[in-house]
Amino acid sequence: MITQFMEELPEGKTTPDFTRKPIALTIQEGKFAYFKAIVVGDPTPTVTWSRANGEIIFHTDVCQQKYDPTSNEHTLEFPKVAPEDADTYKCYATNEYGRAVCTVILNVIEVGFSKTKELQKIQGEDATEFRKRLKTRNPDGTREEKTMDANEKVWEILLSAEKKDYERICAEYGITDFRGMLKKLTEMKKEREEEIAQFISHIRTLKPVEVKDDDCATIELDMDLLDSGSKIFLYKDGVMVPFSKEEGEGMKHNLKQVGKKYVFTIKNLSKDDAGLYSVDVEGVNVFSTDFKVPEVDFAVKIQEVKAEEREDALFQCVLTAPMNEINWYGKSALLTNNEKHEIIVSEDKLIHKLIVRDCLPLDGGIYAAVAGIKSCNAWLVVEVEKDPAKKGKKAARKTTIAGAGNDEELLRIAKEQQERYQKEMEEKAQLAKKAQEEKELAAAAVRAKQKAEAEAKAAAKAEAKAAAKAKRAAAGKDGAVRKTKKKVAGAGADGASGATGGVVGVGAGSAAGGAAGATGGAAGATGGAAGATGGGSAAGSLAGAAGGGAGGAGGVGGRDGSGAAGGAGGNEGGDVEGDSEVESDEDSFEDSDEDIEGEGGGAKGREGAKEGGEKGDLGGEGEEGGEKGEGGEKGGERRKRARAGPLVPDTVIDPGVHFHAGLSDCKAIIGEAAELECKVSSEECVGIWYKDGAEIQASESLTISKEGCFHRLKIHKVTEENAGKYKFEADGRKTEAEIAVEDPPRFDKEELEAFKAPVTIKKGHKATYKLSYIGREPIKVQWYLEGEELSSEGNINIETSDGTSRLLMMKLQHKDSGEIKIKLKNVFGTIEAVSQLNVLDKPTPPMGPLEIVEASSSVIDFKWRPPKDSGGCKIQNYILERQQVGRNTWKKVGPIGPEAKYRDSDVDHGRRYCYRIRVETEMGTSEMMETEDIQAGTKAYPAPPSAPKVASAFKDCINLTWSPPADTGGTSILGYNLEKRKKGSNLWGQVNPPNEIIRGKGFAVKDVVEGMEYEFRVSAINDSGAGEFSTPSEFVFARDPKKPPGKVLDLKVTDSTYTTLSLSWNKPKDIKGEEDEAKGYFVEIRPAENTDWDRCNSNAITMTTYTVKGMKSMAMYWVRVIATNDGGEGVPQELDNYILAMPPPVRPRFTDAKIKSFMIVRAGNSARFTINFEASPWPEVTWLKDGVPVSKKVTISNAEGTSQLLIPSAERSDTGIYTIIVKNIVGQETISIEIRVTDEPKPPGPVDLDENVPGTVTISWTASPDEKRDDRLHYMVTKRDSVKRSWNTIADRIFNNKFTACNIMPGREYQFRVYAKNDMGSSKPSESAKWLIPAKKEKFTVKMPESKACDLQCPPKFLVPLKMHTAPQGYECYMSCAVKGDPTPHVTWLRNNISLNTNTNYFISNTCGVCSMLILRVGTKDTGEYKIVAENALGRAESSTKLTVRE
User: Is residue 569 within 8 Å of 626, Cβ to Cβ?
Assistant: First the structure.
């Protein structure tokens, strides 16, 4: 299936497609299986694989995805296919234009007994047991206090690790069965998910330990806890770690929760913080992560970098130990390798660099490097372009790098660190090797001791057995006795040899193996003695053999060769004794070749043991004795043995030449030089260089040199043939490195310098860029203009041939100016080159607004802004023209230079001038900018003063004051003009005479009329004249000052609530000369606990009522009212008593018009009852059931003026009388309601019928099961007989179980039903059997009365005639009438005596004598007389009407 992502594809681009699809496969388990696919598409598609069930585990032992570039084959391989690999697989090929999908099936045949399955089964059981051990908890959910072992750690790590890390973790902890691990891990994960689900609904975003740049590490996880109170524990290596939940506390570990995100923080990091951290919730492990602290620090820290705008910045540091990567932070954000930030690591992994590309002001800040738990930081300072001409423009891209230049020093330090690191590693390796050897020696001694003890036991047992055999042999023939003696003698000699071997073992054993050697010697001696005392018996031989074996064990205990010799001697005795024992067991009395060989071997054994013993005693080559001893066993053959240790134990061995610094892999570029270097411990050392196993010598292209301890191999000009593995060998030591030859794209240096030179051309011309390059093909060539990639279209042409690329840009505009960049990329790297393109054009007009520096009577001085774009050229001149406003001619002022300012002194005072300004560059002259009119000698008037204020008012004088204006117009204020206006008038009149200005800032207005109301305004005067008037003052009466009013009268509270208080009062009395009329009122309140009064209204009110709002419920307040007028505020009038913020006291009463007293509720439903009431103050509401408080299952909801009782799920036990009591300080009120909880009753039992009295039937039934639980249950009886066949109620509301039915007639069949009824309804009926009383049959005769025939025929007659109709034009008209007649008359409709029955414009119908006609749209043509005629055989009838159409 192919999916296309866009409707139309670009030319030359295609969606992915399969030219070869993978084929379904059925294969036996354990075989090699693979799928192959070939895909095509432009651009090249990306191929991925997936499976239907689960995910594919990519591992070398499980599954691998490969790609062969030569055949374009994508392969999915299974090295050893297993049954669990059987599935449906999908292959996806995707590019930016579409996706292709192909499905294939893999079937795996299982064969015979599967060890893997059995192993997995056992491992599954082990996993369960191991999981139980992991879950061992204390009762409070915490783990047992014990340190975790490696096996427990690895499984906790795997349970929380990502799949890509499985292989690394298994290699680290030595797990080799990868498939078994996956099976076991799957079962453990499933079990843990079930446990986690008990406490956590969802868990996600598990982040392992991450070291930050502020000397702390964090563990992050997002989880939704089912119970927010669940306990969270943190463990390190199985031991609980205490932590705080507040950042301010001084604990090392901290937990911070933000919503569903939990962040554990480890502060003040040190080496002791390394370990396995586990997070548990209520005793269930949810996440584990392994925190490793590498032994690394910064030898050179990053330094502060100052970079210019659009320049690259470089941070670099040197580590004390190699690391593949470190974390870089920019402004506390983790940085990754991208176009903006480039992270570089040296080959020795010691030098780490961060390059910040194209620095902008926003990139400035603190940058940090974090290696392990160590960190360092430094500032990046980006210096912004300060040239005002370039302000706001994008600066050109710079190719320099700030912060570079100390590479040699860093390399020197890195080299020293590498040598120190390698030396430390060698020392650690030596210590580890020595510890391993000591461990192996100790283990060997223990094993030898155990072997000697076992052999001693065996020898004792064999001795007893040989003694028994010797006793049986004593009864044999003489010849047999002699033969046996001969053999025993030989065996005795061999036993002596064994004893000698034992002695050698004792003498040669060193301090390290002394115990084992002594044991062997003792056993050997015992064996020899047994051989001697045996007197030719086989017992001596057996003892000798035992002694020989023990002597061998003793030899192992020694640290030098003499101990080994003792062992050899002992073994010979054992071999000869073995021959004798076989013969004795078989009771043979004949000579044989085996006996002779045994004797000869025994002799040689004795000689070898003796010689070995002598040399062992003298401290010589004890092993020679062993060789001779072995000669006895091998029939005289000699075998060379290696020495097991040095001759003299205390001799110091020279370790020889070793490397202080080995070779390092390097990458070399074709055509450039490459060098390999190593350092040995001796200057006299001479080494040999090899390439791919073959020795190499110096040549013209290759130099081999030696300087002291340093050996170097230098290739002057690298070619592809120089790639390979190089080895340097000296004194048996060797070091290897690989030279990888790369061929990245490179530019020709001379052409690159020419390319970097800026190109300047004129508008409309063309620009050409051409650059040669070399490098491994294919090379992708890209051209950019200001960061946007260019393509061959329009006025751009890009040509790329072998080793050359050319960019041609035609018909260029000024907007095309900018940075030109070429970018080359192949598999080995990327290179860029940058140039600058300047396209010259005419400048744009100068920019406003105009800034007037001076505009006096003799000069006009002004400035303007330069053009937004000068066209890439330098401004040569500004050209000005001037026009006097009112004239049509323009005067050319001429070029004034490149400065954007002009001072015009040739002006007339008071005249207005306009200017035109153009910009002149080498490319021409711009369009003009025309200025606004500028007046020479402009007058500056003062600003308005402040509004006049009334200082005092009398009936014949009003005193005013004001403040001078803030803006005086540049000159001093000479005086003021004052105007007045009466209220209601539009005319202002000047107060001061026109020729006499007011010099002060106040004035007494005496030209006023008593009782009139005035307002005033004032204007300031300077040298230019009078400015604008101020805003008017407030209105003021011309009258003498008033007296403050008296107290208000009759202050009282009219209403109150819990938050408001309504007041009313009367005006105070007006006493002439003492108290004037009140103009307004202020209301003030004071809480009882305060001493300050709060004014409720900021402005005086004129009404004599006011409502105070925002009071606290049931709070105590003091209230007063103050009258005010122009003379001031009067004396306050307080209420006599304090006021409580509450409504007036009201006795509780219920406000519902009708309150139910009885409620029926079906069992299981909710019962809800609401009571509305009013009371003040707020009452106490109590609900009772049958006189006691309601149970907890009943919900009571009280609100203002209402109370509700709710029984969520009613039961029969909830039946009862519920009483509500509403009580406050005034009184109380109660009301009761009966709530009956019931259900539809169950039907009564069987129904019986009995006839006690003739003509009656007694019906009786068994009571319904609900009768005892429901006192309102009763019964209803219905009857049906064979005549009526319908059920009729004959009795209802029967409260017993019996009823007698009367009027039972013989001969009829009766049946009865009984229903149980209650307040909810009726039950299903219980039916009786049929009841029949037989009746005597009498003969029945019927007398039929005589009947007369009826004649219904009649002529037509209209029962309802037609009516007159008047209809609007365009509307419907409906006519109808009713006619009767027998036989049915024929009806005809006529208009103006013309039949309409066949006219389709009229809808005519006749239904049961009702005749109708419908006209859908009435028109003028429908006007006229309408007639209906009804005819039959007996007569004829007519009815007519007229239709009038109204327009």
Answer: yes
Q: Is the pLDDT of residue 250 over 90?
A: no
Task: Kindly state the average pLDDT of the residues 1344-1365.
Answer: 85
Span 210-227, pLDDT tens digits: 787 677 888 888 888 877
Q: Give the separation between CA 134 and CA 185, rounded to whole angstroms.
A: 14
Q: How far is CA 893 from its chain centroid? A: 70
Q: Is 1153 in contact with 1231 (CB distance < 8 Å)? A: no
Tell me: pLDDT of 118 over 80.
no
Query: In this predicted model, what pLDDT tens digit does every residue of 978-991 receive, in sequence order?
Result: 999 999 899 999 99
pLDDT for position 1190 = 92
| Strand ranges inside 922-971, DSSP E | 924-925, 929-930, 934-935, 949-953, 958-961
How many angstroms separate the CA atoms of 216 and 211, rounded?
Answer: 6
At 487, is the secondary structure helix, strand, or coil? helix
Mean pLDDT over 609-624 rounds to 36
Q: What is the pTM of this model?
A: 0.32
Task: Give the pLDDT confidence score for residue 589 in this predicted structure.
Answer: 34
Quick check: 1273 and 1281 in contact, CB under 8 A?
Answer: no
What is d(CA 291, CA 126) in angstroms, rounded to the nearest whole number?
27
CB-CB contact of 1295 with 1276 (8 Å): no
Asked if residues 1146 and 1173 have their Cβ atoms less than 8 Å apart, the reply is no
What is the per-residue pLDDT across 664-690, written as a single tens digit (0 to 9) for each? 888 888 888 999 999 888 888 888 899
DSSP code per residue over 105-140: EEEEE--S--HHHHHHHHHHHHHHHHHHHHT-B-TT
Q: For residues 639 and 627, is the Cβ–Cβ distance under 8 A? A: yes
Residues near 661 by Cβ (< 8 Å), separated by ≥ 6? 415, 418, 419, 422, 677, 678, 679
What value does the mean pLDDT take over residues 1083-1104? 92
Question: How far, in Å, CA of 1346 to CA of 298, rounded?
Answer: 137
- Is residue 196 pLDDT above 60, yes or no? yes
* Axis crossing angle, helix 478-508 with helix 593-617, rounded to the nearest 10: 20
What does the alpha-carbon distance between residue 1139 and residue 1120 come to, in Å, rounded to a whole number? 11
Q: 656 — alpha (psi -120 to 50), left (phi > 0) or beta?
A: left
* d(C-alpha 872, C-alpha 919), whole Å: 13
Residue 649 CB neighbour total at 10 angstroms: 12
- What count of other Cβ atoms lies within 10 Å of the Cβ of residue 578? 15
Amino acid at 1322: S
Q: With contact defined as beta carbons under 8 Å apart, do 720 and 670 qualify?
A: yes
Residue that has been written with the tokens 């783990």 in this structure: 143
pLDDT value for 1204: 92
Contacts 24+ apart (CB under 8 A), 1127-1132: 1127/1041, 1127/1042, 1127/1043, 1127/1044, 1127/1045, 1127/1076, 1128/1044, 1129/1044, 1129/1082, 1130/1044, 1130/1045, 1130/1046, 1130/1047, 1130/1068, 1130/1075, 1130/1078, 1131/1046, 1131/1047, 1132/1047, 1132/1084
Average pLDDT of span 1216-1221: 94
Cβ–Cβ < 8 Å for 571, 556: no
Helix, strand, coil tally for the chain in percent (to 5)? 20, 40, 40
Cβ-based burial of 487 (10 A; exposed 0-12, middle 13-18, buried ≥19): buried
CB within 8 Å of 1229: residues ≥ 6 apart: 1147, 1148, 1149, 1150, 1173, 1221, 1222, 1223
CA 250 to chain centre: 30
Structure confidence by residue, pLDDT tens digits, 1316-1328 = 998 888 999 999 9
By CB atoms closer than 10 A (0-12, 13-18, 19+), residue 1151 is exposed
Upstream peptide bond of 1179 is cis (omega within 30 degrees of 0): no
In tens, the pLDDT along 145-165 reads 666 777 777 888 888 788 777
Coil, helix or strand at residue 837: strand
Which pair of structure tokens corresponds to residue 865?
Answer: 């802004």
Helices then strands (H, E): number in the chain? 12, 98
